[in-house]
Amino acid sequence: MNSSLALIWTITAATTLLQAGNGLLQALMPLRMQAEGISVASIGVVAAAYGVGFSTGCFLAPSFIRHVGYIRAFASLAAVVSVLILAMTQAHSTLAWILLRGLTGVTLACIFTVTDGWISARATSSHRGRILSIYMICTKVALMLSPLGISFGDIRTDGLFMAVSALMTLSLLPIAATTTKEPNAPQGVRIEVRKLFATAPSAVVGAFVVGLVNGPVVAITPVFGVSIGLSQDQAAALLFALQAGSLAMQWPLGWLSDRADRRYVIAGLALGASLVSLLILWASAQNASLLILWSFAAWGGLALCIYSVCVAHACDIVEPGEIVSTVGTLLFSWATGVTVGPLLGALAMEVLGPQGLFIYAALASLGLAVFIVMRIAKVQRPPAKGGFADIAPTSSASAGLAPRAEIGPEDPQQPYLPGLEGAAEAPDQNGRSPATRVETSP
Q: Segment Disordered: which positions (predicted)?
């Protein structure tokens, strides 16, 4: 176990620092744009640009890593994203924000490919669950706590952006100091939406709707909070609540998902997210700040966990050799939703006011629940046989969060992106199949 941890401590430390910066950026960017007078609709377009960039980066990353290797890829990409964050201090137009956010999407997608692929390759089968738990806890806690750092600076000055850039730059140190051999280069992956939809329509539609809903909510939550009268610190705390709820619900939902037709879990989560969206609307109308915070935690525990169940459901159905393609296809479906969702969510806020965001979320989530119930009525499936995959949005436009994949029978949260070597592992001796996780970013 100790030798296995020695192989991944550097990438774990690097990713923790990176996610600390990424989490702070999630809260900072929308608040900064709002303070500069940029409309909610334009903030939605910026969030959509991140989705486009992230999607692009996912497909560019494998060839880039093959060309320069994992260590050089991480070092160069972290340097680039650090410069992009500094450039945001000089962004004073919507076009500039769109360009910079799209480029950060490309670079962060490539970085997450590096980190997830490294972990996936280094975690041994005997210790994978424990090793990946440590990795995920470190990065998840960093992502969860860092938005609270918004209280240590003024969003109208450049200090917080410099802090984000510093964290991104510091992530280079563990990688530069590593003495372990880097993993083998990743291979490519085919995207087959039509084929997977014919096999597992609930998974494809679920991944797409997750992007439609989670993307705008995570991206625009700080603006929503300020718009309903919360302070900037309280608005940033809503992101903390989303991630905390997601983390708390992963294992209970994983246990439940492994003991039933996963589509029941997807439908239940979607319906729950719809109902909690209505609760958030009611709490915001009552100015009940504490109830709003708890409602966001509940929303995160429901909505942010849907994608992982969708991936696990698809991996239960497809052949082991099709796992990589399945993961890539679901990632593409999610990214498409993340690109479109912020535009729709921002439009809803423009037309209906701040509450429009969660009216939109409630309707979209309810639509997914209805679709899944119709599929269950049409096609009956036996209880799941595979393990549950964790997904954690690490970004706002997402993050987003940032999608990532996870392989392994009981891997609590093994990150892994399509196209990385080792993704297409066969089921273990208990018949459990690989699965996937997604993370996003603002």
A: 399-442
